[in-house]
């Protein structure tokens, strides 16, 4: 897992706006909240990106929206259309650790 600050238009690191890279994809975090998660998926020998947005925080503030748009590489209008069509799933991304899908469970009782 790797965490990187997002950068401004001028190339400066932006405080409190992060991209987290995991083995299965990437996550956008604004302050302490996970906003969006993109995972790589495979279906019928084709790869595609599966996008999930946090139902509570995906459009929390102007700053969150600005960096969410950069992360998804689209406008708010495009994001709303994809939510409405079902292409993007609204879910609770803040109830479990972001890295849970990449952590192997170890049984210490063996």
Q: How are the SSEs ordered, and which strands pair?
A:
Elements: E1 2-7, E2 13-22, E3 25-30, E4 33-43, E5 46-54, H1 62-72, H2 76-85, E6 88-91
Parallel strand pairs: 5-6
Antiparallel strand pairs: 1-2, 2-3, 3-4, 4-5
Structural class: alpha+beta
Number of individual domains: 1
Assembly form of the protein: single chain
Helix content: 10-25%
Distance between the termini: 28 Å
Radius of gyration: 15 Å
The string of secondary-structure elements, in order, is: EEEEEHHE
The global form is globular
- How many β-strand runs? 6
Mean pLDDT: 87
Binned strand content: 35-45%
| Largest sheet data | 6 strands, mixed
Strand order of the largest sheet: 1-2-3-4-5-6
Are there runs of 5+ residues with pLDDT below 50, and where?
A: 102-110
Number of discrete helical segments: 2
């Amino acid at each position: 897992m790797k965490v990187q600050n997002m950068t401004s238009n001028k190339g400066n690191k932006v405080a409190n706006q992060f991209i987290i890279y995991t083995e299965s994809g990437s996550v956008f975090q604004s302050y302490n909240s996970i906003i969006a998660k993109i995972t790589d998926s495979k279906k019928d020998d084709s790869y595609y990106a599966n996008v999930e947005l946090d139902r509570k925080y995906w459009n929390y503030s102007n700053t969150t929206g600005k960096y969410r748009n950069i992360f998804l590489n689209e406008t708010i209008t495009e994001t709303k259309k994809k939510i409405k069509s079902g292409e993007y799933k609204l879910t609770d991304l803040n109830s479990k650790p972001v890295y849970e899908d990449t952590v192997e469970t170890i049984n210490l009782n063996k």
